[in-house]
Here is the input.
Amino acid sequence: MNIHTKYHGEVEMDEILTFEKGIPGFAEEKQFALLPLSDDESYYVLQSVSTPGLAFVLTNPFQFMTAYDFQLEDAAVEELSLESERDVAVYTILTVQDPFEKTTANLQAPIIINLKNRKAKQVILHNEQYKTKHPIFQKAEAKG
Here is the structure.
C-alpha cells in the first residue's frame, strides 16, 4: 500500500497499525503507519494512512525515563488481544519544540502496540506522577 506522508513523501507500507477506536481527538483516524524519523531509530512518526498532514512524532519513553512503569487496565489488554509482555511496544507522543532540547513527551497517554496483531491504542493513565509535558532532556545540575 502506498501512502502519502507528512515527512517522508510517498512511501510503500505493508504493516499498518489499527487503532480500533481511533486516537483521542481523532476518532475517525483508525489506520496508521510507524516510520523511523531518525537514522538511529530514536524517533518515529506515527503517520495517518488516510490524512497525509496528520502525523505524530514518537519515541520510546524508556530511553529517557528508565523508571517509567504502569499497569494496563484489563479492558485495554483485552481490546489489544495482548497475551504476553513480549508482544508489547510502548511509545510516547512528543511535542517538538524549538530548540529541540525543550521537547516534551506525553507520559500520561502512551501509545501501546501489540506487535503480533498490529492493534494499537493510546491509553490514558490515571497516575498523577506522569505528566503530559515531561521534558525528555534533563538539565545538567548546576555546580556551586
About this structure: Confidence is low (pLDDT under 50) at residues 140-144. The chain is about 5% helix and 30% strand.
